[in-house]
Structure formats: C-alpha cells, structure tokens
C-alpha cells in the first residue's frame, strides 16, 4: 500500500456532507489526520488482530467487507465503492460495535484513511459529525442484516442468480471474469456447491462456462430463478 500527496481538502469537502458544519480549526484537523492510500486488488486492509484502522473513504475502486468462520469460509457483508465510506473499519470508535470484520480490495483502489482519534474528537465536538458516523454505521448494519437474511432464508440458486446479475450490472458486462472459488467466497459457500449450481445453469442454457469466466447468455431465465417460474433444482 503506497501513500501519495494530493489535495486532501477537495475530496473531504466533496464527499463528507458535514464539511459545511465544521469550523476552520475542525477542517484543518480533519485534513491533517487524513492521508491517501492506494492498494492493489487482493490487498488485505483489516482484521480483528489489527489496531483500529480508521474511517475509509473510497475515491476509486472497491473494497469487500467480510467475516470469516473458523473453517476459513468467508461471507461477504457488503462492498464499498466510489465515493462511499466504511465506518465499520473504525469499530473501536463506537463502543457498541463488538464483532470483527475483515476488508480486502476487490479492485485496485484509492482511498482516504482518517485516523480514529481525529474522528473521535470531531464526534465529541460536533453533532453533525457524530450523526453522520452513526447514520453510515446504521446503513452498514442494514447491509449486514440483508446478507444474513439471504444466507439463512434464500435458496442457493436464488443467491447465485442474484450475485451474477449484480456483478453483471456492476461491471457493465455479461461476461464475468471470476472463478468458482471467488464466487464461493463471496457467497459464503463451498466451491463444489457453486460449481454444481453453475453447471446446472449451463445445462439450462442460462450461462456458459469457461476457465476463469462465467458468461450470462439468457438474462431472462436467470431473473426467473429469483422472481418466479418454478423449476426443479439439483440437490
């Protein structure tokens, strides 16, 4: 992860809505304790064993926030993209947050990291900063609850279909450059389960598979896996 010098103020002013409610001293304080960092796809940013990382503001790229079970199975909770902020990376700033998360770069990413002590001070001094942090954290927990609901109550074919559609929209392409292992990590499942369901989708004419890619060839059928048209599924 490398650091670069650039005009931090412009980005903080652009992406933090509470900026207009900061006085000059608070603005200088926020700028002085924020720094640009860059990371490559696959870089690991945070784990429960590390110190509290800080507030992450993504300028370009995408971060994946996930939890890991004892058997190393991963469950993706949510992603943070361009112009979005991750507050759970600074869980030590909010005492009520007690669970551990991990963060990695899904793409080459540029972000601004603001250290925890700075934000804690600003939260104590300025109610607009405090409200913003709690609002963002509440939205993150809403994403977490949605992810848990999908895992507990949705059949795997629906989850996989939804994931493929979301990735197609996100990448603006019907050809997804990913592996069965990566999909399994994102969905908190086993690679064998993903492979079996993808082969079923291929047999149904929904996708075509090749090494390192999944191509959606019938979006209507894929959507029907989520919204309707009952069909038999492999056990």
UniProtKB/TrEMBL annotation:
The keyword Transcription applies. One of its GO terms (cellular component) is cytosol. Residues 18-140 form the Cyclic nucleotide-binding domain. Transmembrane segments: none annotated. Pfam families: cNMP_binding (PF00027), HTH_Crp_2 (PF13545). The keyword Transmembrane does not apply. It comes from the Bacteria. GO terms for molecular function: DNA binding; DNA-binding transcription factor activity. Coiled coil: none annotated. Residues 154-220 form the HTH crp-type domain. InterPro entries: cNMP-bd_dom, cNMP-bd_dom_sf, Env_Response_Regulators, HTH_CRP, RmlC-like_jellyroll, WH-like_DNA-bd_sf, WH_DNA-bd_sf. Keywords: DNA-binding, Transcription, Transcription regulation. This is Crp/Fnr family transcriptional regulator.
